[in-house]
Write a sequence for this structure.
């Protein structure tokens, strides 16, 4: 404490030049700050430490849309605070509540400290039933751990084949380690994980445009202020996905853009909207068809775009329903070319070619009767007039027309489509539908166009490093296929799993009980993580990973912003934690592939960076970030990578599901259907919204966030609650035929009657009973093959009287309420 | 302890009861604190001058705290 | 004279809590206490709206805004007037702060503050991590504490932590006596409210409601007054002509 005699009202003078150096001085990422001696005493009688911290620029790295460059302040050997650090292109300065909170996360008691082995596991007697909440662990050495894993992999390889070992990679660390993981998997011949989450909408979009894996590319966020209409469809972008770029959307609105939000929930984003369309869950395809109907009716479609960049004029045979091919008829062209009518004559359609093609009408070419693709679409949309779908969708017909009118007539804009739509079983249909809608309005390739609820960003292009071209990699399994493979050996047996960067058993996978049954067939479950997650608790071998600030890496800006970032080490790895790369390399050595892996992580990063011509390792290292100039701000400016080089409005090679064929976007619902067989027994739809307080299940333990958001809740409309005798803040049992959970009810008028929600990301320890993933299911559609977390029905009732809620109701004022898990080892 | 979820600011009548809660169990005269709090708002509102406020509570504050270093002291205030 | 004030654009605020948490981090605020709370103007609970969900295709009446609330740094601060030991005082630059060496914990200031902006350290303050966080020393048990506009940063030419960490550019700090400052321009050109104006406290925290402002895009943690013009990329000129 300073002297307090005469400081009461003294003039406050600037205390020298320390501030000038703060964070931004010099070219180096490390700014050791000179200070004027021991902390200056302020007039408050308190010591100020401004200017005394050693500051390291690094990058926050979860699977969010941030990849925020940050300054980490260290003093007295301890991380004291986090501040945003603008990247090379300063307009991408970003921050959020989570990135700040590493100050607490780094030292959280859930951090793993030492390699561990489940006490009752051995390679020959794996005792799989010993896994679970009661499992106990014993500390082992790194050598012991890697020897055990490598030996078991070898013995499984000789007995069942290399593909019986599954390398599962999650999304919990946006560095390059995953490439080394895949590299080892490829060399060994292991089965590799393929994504089965959030790929649904992109599949549908891709079928029409040739673009999109997860969500399709969209203009970088710096361009969003040029949009005149932004339709955010099924996403609370101001709470997740876009909060760190919120200023970009707000700037668009401030510039006069119309913000439309389509969501069954009155979200934070909806509260900022000019127009909110409270669609019923699962009815989105009806709604967008009605918007198309309006565009047709008002003839506000973009004629030039449809003619030059889509197959709108392409003729469809009335006899077969297939596209007429140039080679089918006497038109000069190839078999893969479709045919349009220009000046009354059939011509083969070239990509990116303007012509006075007929957009509508019936034509006979060489005796074959045809109609144009756009005619087919118009006829299809004709069945879905706004007035006709208003009741079904819950959206007022005039509001549907208004949204369509704004998009079609106010200049560039777009649809910020979401992952949430793909969390319904048949979500790929929406992907197809909105790709077509945006083609009708000509919203591709221009400033101000939007195609997804997060920007494109960029990645490090490392060529074949992850899958060396000289080796024959093993097969891959998409996530939802795991249980069948583990239980029934379908399509092949899985006897061991090595998992990195994933809390698969705690948050990322649905139908928790089924996955727990499935892993009982594993002889070895190796889990590498930073924290003692629910997945770690299921492991046989636990590999402790350092916090991001303790492992250098190159961070991809995928889905975020067009920079790569260098994640400099802020401190040495705590305890005996080791970078995944070191573990992977250690295994590679034991498996005979050591020479394929550079000796140090730094060397690996250097090698990967050297493969990408658009970046330079030294620049990236020194600056901390480098904007990848080859990443275009505006997307879709070139020929579409489809057979015709155009957006394919009518897909004559369409897949089908449940007897519905998707040449055009035809609505199909699973559990949201009004007449679904479980509608009476489980009348409420159940979603698990992303919250601003967690990224998947990361940050669950942050004390600051938990003071604001202490426990899982069930958002429920007061009417639904009262009908069940549920009072506000009362604990409720949420259940269906798969399982149950007990959480606190939160009356929330924002939620549509018939829809309830528990924010995702909570760990098992946070629930009074059960877990939200005891309610979700693992069924996917044939086309989407994507986990449908929100296509779930539940019933809700007051929790049984004898349920023990003391973890939240008795003296727990400090947040992070639930018990600390056994971190073991120490 | 304050509540991060408290939704709104408190209207005046309830604020007084909150003020009483705040002062409950304080080592000093709670009633004096409440009266001064009420009158401090009147000063802000212009219903009472700083000088009047100072004078009104000077003796009580002196008695309770053994000093009165409030900034409301008017020039030439007679401390006697 | 310098007269610091804060403008919060509620049309831009997305309720993300980054300001609330960065405040705790920077100022080493104990667990269980908040100097800066992001209140929901709407329903009874955090992140819930007022009004009713749309029925039968109508538009409903739901409404929700966020109101970050901390010490309002009042010109006529009742907390200052009641402090018998002059521990709470107003600096020459308008910041209201507390000399914790003088505070005797009588809590009169808490009773006098109509904004519920002050907290009292009933117990030995707890911090996570234990050693504390941020750039200012922790306060002991038995004193009242509150937002200082990060005076320890302002004294070094830096913006308050809550301003630097706002991803929505919704918080603007600066000199209300300087005509060309962004805060002055926004107070003059946008419709602003101050909380509980009927109490006559004359707060220096202004809330924009109605028309959204461009906020203040920042690429530096320096006070606006510390930046030369070249270093203020994207700071927009205020709109001309008022808010009608």
């Amino acid at each position: 404490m300073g002297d307090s005699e005469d400081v009461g009202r003294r003039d406050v003078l600037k205390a020298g030049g320390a501030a000038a150096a703060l964070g931004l001085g010099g070219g180096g990422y490390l700014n050791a700050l000179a200070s004027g001696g021991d902390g200056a005493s302020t007039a408050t009688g308190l010591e100020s430490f401004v200017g005394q911290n050693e500051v390291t620029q690094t990058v926050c790295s979860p699977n969010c849309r941030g990849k925020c460059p940050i300054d980490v302040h260290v003093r007295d050997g301890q991380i004291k605070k986090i501040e945003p650090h603008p990247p090379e292109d300063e307009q991408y300065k970003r921050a959020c509540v989570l990135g700040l909170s590493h100050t607490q996360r780094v030292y959280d008691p859930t951090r793993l400290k030492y390699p561990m082995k489940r006490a009752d596991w051995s390679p020959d007697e794996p005792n799989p039933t010993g896994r679970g909440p009661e499992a106990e662990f014993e500390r082992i050495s790194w050598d012991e751990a890697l020897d055990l894993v490598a030996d078991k992999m070898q013995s499984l390889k000789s007995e069942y084949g290399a593909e019986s070992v599954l390398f599962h990679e999650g999304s919990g660390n946006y560095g390059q380690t995953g490439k080394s993981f895949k590299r080892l998997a490829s060399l060994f011949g292991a089965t590799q994980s393929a994504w089965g989450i959030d790929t649904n909408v992109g599949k549908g979009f891709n079928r029409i445009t040739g673009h999109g894996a997860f969500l399709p590319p969209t203009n970088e966020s710096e361009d969003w202020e040029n949009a005149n209409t932004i339709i955010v469809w099924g996403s609370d972008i101001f709470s997740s996905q876009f909060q760190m770029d919120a200023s970009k959307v707000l700037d668009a609105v401030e510039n006069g853009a119309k913000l439309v939000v389509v969501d069954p929930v009155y979200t934070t984003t909806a509260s900022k909207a000019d127009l909110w369309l409270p669609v019923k869950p699962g009815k989105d395809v009806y709604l967008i068809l009605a918007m198309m109907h309006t565009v047709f009716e008002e003839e506000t479609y973009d004629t030039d775009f449809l003619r030059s960049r889509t197959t709108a004029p392409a003729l469809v045979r009335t006899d077969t329903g297939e596209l007429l091919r140039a080679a089918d008829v006497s038109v000069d062209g190839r078999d893969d070319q479709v045919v349009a009518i220009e000046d009354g004559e059939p011509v083969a359609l070239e990509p990116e070619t303007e012509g006075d093609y007929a957009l509508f009408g019936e034509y006979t070419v060489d005796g074959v009767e045809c109609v144009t693709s756009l005619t087919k679409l118009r006829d299809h949309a004709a069945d879905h007039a706004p007035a006709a779908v208003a009741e079904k969708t819950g959206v007022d017909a005039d509001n549907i027309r208004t949204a369509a009118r704004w998009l079609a007539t106010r200049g560039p804009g777009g649809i910020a489509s979401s992952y949430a739509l793909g969390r319904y079983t048949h979500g790929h249909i929406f992907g197809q539908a909105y790709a077509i809608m945006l083609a009708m309005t000509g919203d591709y390739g221009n400033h101000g166009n939007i195609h997804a609820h997060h920007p494109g960003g960029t990645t490090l292009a490392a060529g074949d490093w992850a899958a060396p071209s000289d080796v024959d990699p093993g097969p891959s399994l998409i996530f939802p296929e795991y249980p069948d493979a583990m239980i029934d050996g379908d399509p092949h047996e899985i006897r061991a799993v090595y998992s990195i960067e994933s809390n698969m058993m705690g948050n990322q996978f649905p139908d928790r009980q089924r996955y727990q049954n499935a892993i009982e067939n594993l002889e070895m479950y190796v889990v590498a993580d930073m924290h003692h997650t629910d997945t770690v608790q299921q492991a046989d071998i636990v590999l402790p990973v350092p916090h991001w600030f303790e492992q250098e890496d190159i961070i991809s800006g995928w889905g975020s912003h067009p920079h790569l970032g260098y994640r400099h080490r802020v401190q040495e790895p705590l305890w005996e934690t080791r970078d995944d790369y070191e573990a992977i390399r250690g295994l590679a050595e034991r498996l005979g592939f050591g020479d394929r892996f550079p000796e140090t992580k730094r060397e690996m990063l250097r090698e990967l960076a050297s493969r990408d011509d658009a970046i330079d390792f030294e620049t990236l290292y020194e600056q901390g970030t480098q904007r990848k100039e080859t990443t275009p701000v505006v997307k879709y400016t070139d020929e579409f990578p489809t057979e015709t080089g155009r957006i394919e409005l009518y897909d004559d090679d369409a897949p089908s599901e449940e007897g519905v064929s998707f040449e055009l976007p035809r609505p199909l619902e699973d559990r949201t259907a009004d007449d679904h067989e479980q509608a009476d027994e489980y009348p409420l739809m159940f979603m698990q919204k992303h919250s601003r307080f967690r990224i998947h299940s990361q940050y669950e333990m942050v004390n600051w966030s938990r003071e604001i958001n202490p426990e899982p809740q069930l958002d429920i409309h007061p009417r639904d609650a009262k009908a069940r005798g549920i009072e506000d803040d009362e604990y409720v049992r949420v259940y269906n035929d798969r399982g149950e959970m007990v959480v606190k009810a939160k009356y929330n008028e924002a939620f549509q009657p018939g829809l309830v929600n528990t924010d995702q990301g909570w760990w098992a320890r946070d629930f009074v009973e059960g877990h939200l993933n005891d309610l979700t299911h693992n069924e996917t559609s044939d086309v989407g093959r994507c986990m449908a977390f929100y296509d779930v029905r539940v019933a809700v009732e007051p929790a049984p009287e004898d349920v023990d809620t003391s973890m939240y109701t008795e003296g727990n004022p400090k947040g992070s309420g639930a018990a600390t898990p056994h971190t073991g080892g120490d | 302890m304050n509540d991060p979820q408290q939704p709104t600011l408190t209207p005046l009548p309830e604020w007084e009861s909150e003020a009483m809660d705040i002062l409950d169990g304080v080592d000093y005269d709670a009633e004096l604190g409440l009266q001064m709090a009420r009158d401090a708002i009147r000063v802000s509102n212009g219903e009472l001058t700083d000088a009047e406020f100072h004078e009104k509570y000077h003796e009580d504050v002196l008695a309770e705290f053994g000093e009165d270093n409030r900034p409301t002291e008017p020039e030439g205030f007679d401390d006697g | 004279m310098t007269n610091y004030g804060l403008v919060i654009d509620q049309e831009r605020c997305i309720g993300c809590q980054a300001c609330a948490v960065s405040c705790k981090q920077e100022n080493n605020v104990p667990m269980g206490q908040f100097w800066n709370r992001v209140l929901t103007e709407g329903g009874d609970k955090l992140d819930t709206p007022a009004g009713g969900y749309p029925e039968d295709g109508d538009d409903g009446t739901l409404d929700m805004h966020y109101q970050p609330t901390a010490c309002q740094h009042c010109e006529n601060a009742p907390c200052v007037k009641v402090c018998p030991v002059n521990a709470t005082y107003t600096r020459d630059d308008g910041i209201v702060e507390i000399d914790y060496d003088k505070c005797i914990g009588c809590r009169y200031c808490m009773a006098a503050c109509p904004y519920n902006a002050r907290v009292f350290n009933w117990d030995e303050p707890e911090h996570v991590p234990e050693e504390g966080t941020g750039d200012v020393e922790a306060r002991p048990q038995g004193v009242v504490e509150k937002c200082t506009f990060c005076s320890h940063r302002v004294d070094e030419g830096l913006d308050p932590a809550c301003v630097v960490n706002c991803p929505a550019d919704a918080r603007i700090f600066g000199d209300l006596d300087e005509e060309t400052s962004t805060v002055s321009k926004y107070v003059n050109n946008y419709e602003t409210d101050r909380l509980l104006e009927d109490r006559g406290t004359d707060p220096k925290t202004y809330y924009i409601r109605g028309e959204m402002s461009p906020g203040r895009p920042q690429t530096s943690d320096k006070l606006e007054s510390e930046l030369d013009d070249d270093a203020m990329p994207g700071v927009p000129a205020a709109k001309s002509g008022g808010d009608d």
Summary: The two ends of chain B are 40 Å apart (CA to CA).
